[in-house]
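TODO from last week: model CDP-diacylglycerol--serine O-phosphatidyltransferase.
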Amino acid sequence: MRITKSIPNMFTLGNLYCGFLSIGFAANGEFNNAAILILIGMMLDSMDGRLARMLKADSSLGKELDSLADIVTFGVAPSFLVYYTYFFQFGLLGFIVAGLFPLFGAYRLARFNISSTKSSLHYFIGVPITAAGGILALLTLFGNYIPNIIISVVFTALCFLMVSRIRIPSLKEVPLPKYGTIVTLFIGCLLYVIYKGTYIKFPYLIYIAAPLYIAYLAYRFMKGKNKRDDLD
């Protein structure tokens, strides 16, 4: 029973470890691998909370651990990735600007954690840090086709959108898990195509993560469909 209740935390720790590995890959110049690991972190992040509810393993420890993992994987790791791929050319100023992203993300997470109402089924208050970090990872993957000015604008916009009071559609009523599902499923299907013909070592973890996540999506979709059929 204790092992079962630890499963969601294992996924959360896996998310955190993906963030750590992403920083390491970015420092070694393997930027695509670093971006892929952030996307794998999105997959794990979209699963841990639902697994906790399924296994009735919700805990204060798990919630705090999730926030700590998110700030590393979707705050610190993307900021390093953007710095090493673009902002490095501005020297110390670029390093300082890149560091703003995890600061805004941490504030957003803290504000969410102390919110009495949390998030509505229909919207989030401000862009979730998971989505913001995933967007930066995608921009890095396709960085060769995107002008640097666009990356700068999107980076700056995401910083302020995370701490804004703008209502962002949550897509929670879509019969698939969480807001990161569509992005991660789409990317998961295209990973091999994106990397085919490149000379960068592919992170073998994706061969495990992507099929498991797609199976999880299929299970959640069928479960939701069967539930609606029963109600009908």
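Done. The longest helix spans residues 205-231.
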